[in-house]
Predict the 3D structure of the following.
Amino acid sequence: MYKIIVVEDNVRINRYISGILKKALPSDVSIESAFDGESALQMAKNGVDAVITDIRMPKMSGIELITEVKKMFPKVKIVIISAYEDFKVAQEAIALKVDQYLLKPFDDKKIIDIAKGLYTESMGRESDAIKQALLKTASGVMLQKEEQYTDIQCQVMLLRFGVFGTKGGLNAEEELRQYIESMQYHLDYVIFKMNYETFGIVFYRKRTEYLPNVQGLALGLINTLLKKYAMINVYLSKPYLDICETYPVILKSYQELSCLLVIGKSMLWEEDGYRQRIIPASQVERKLAEFKPILEKRMKAKNQQKMAEAIQGFFLKEGLEEYPAILIKRLVVGTAEKMLEVSKCMLDENILEVVEKELLDCYCVQDVIDAVIRIYQNIEKMNVNENGISMKELSDRVLDYLKKHVYENVCLKDLVDEFHFSESYIVRVVSYHTGITPMKWSILLKVEEAKNMFRTNPSLKAAYVAEQLGFSDQRYFCKVFKNYEKMTISEYKKLCEERSDKE
């Protein structure tokens, strides 16, 4: 039974998602509903294959839930649904290796297709008993030896595509099948997808039959697929007589492939064969920590030539070209994050997506250096818009305008007319630099001005002050005042009178 937990505190939305999934998915899929993170966590303790969760919920947030569920079931599939385009949440989701991120509202087909994809990926395309057993073993579902499979011998091959990954993932399964069939090895095999850039193949035969050496097939795959993809790394295990060995072999080979993704090199690694030197991730973080102060100094100096030289020196230092690609990516992301921090700039896209686009066609360290320099140049361009106004300056000007027009009913259209930028751009810039939207600033400034008026003259009527400050509705003004000050206008006026008496 494949189990999906839908976690959404809005009862109507929760029931709707659960309902359409129950109708669309096969009968062996169990759909369970939870209305908060804590309830979902209790359900997950009994086993779960996929979690579809909201982010902002009572008791336990979606991110906290994902973190706890991942501790119990590292391979669980996660789909986030959220009404907010939250950069911080997106970063956390990437760190937790979330499979999908959906923004509300979304159409039924989208979430149904995602759920079907997760189910199909889990179960695999094969239907006979041995292949299903191999797929279950490969995913860690079946770890104990079963009598009916004691005569099966198998061999694992893992393939990882690309240097830095490919946008949208890969659909190479049919290519792998076609190539294996064309080699006429007449082998039985199953193919499964581990992540968007890694595929596994398990070749198997009954113990009484000959399991040929597939090294030639592996080398042929590298040469054939390199015509399409930037780089292919292949791990080939030795034969095993117990299919339950498949899972630990896959874990081991996946770790080896992570260390073999070397820029500019495609290779075949056989078990007990060639091994690339392993570079710990802590070494990358240490190098980043050393580089960031230099990076900040160069950026503040506003000298593009010196900045380019600093980037060049850092990425050529200490044989960096031998780092696994996954660690090179971390270096570039860390560098880009520091650039954004120093420039006080922001991106419309997730920083990881920006980096992966830039690194997509990189085949050597110099390509990586050029990509980092392009990222820096783009950040510098974004920091000053076409009108020559920095984002920080625009944010300050908007706040000054709101202060000067505190007695008027200012709307976003007024800001567009005044500063000649789109509504969305003004909102994003002000929110990024102050943490508050322009319209919330407008209300906050009006509340502060109202307090000044009441302190000066506590006898003023709320209706009069509301009208003076551009509020068309006195009740709304009173409600806003109470929300911000945590007291009613009458209570505030009384407090002002008491302070006046004491003085």
About this structure: The chain is about 55% helix and 15% strand. Strands lie at 2-7, 29-34, 50-54, 77-82, 100-103, 152-161, 188-195, 198-206, 232-236, 267-270. The longest strand covers residues 152-161. The two ends are 75 Å apart (CA to CA).
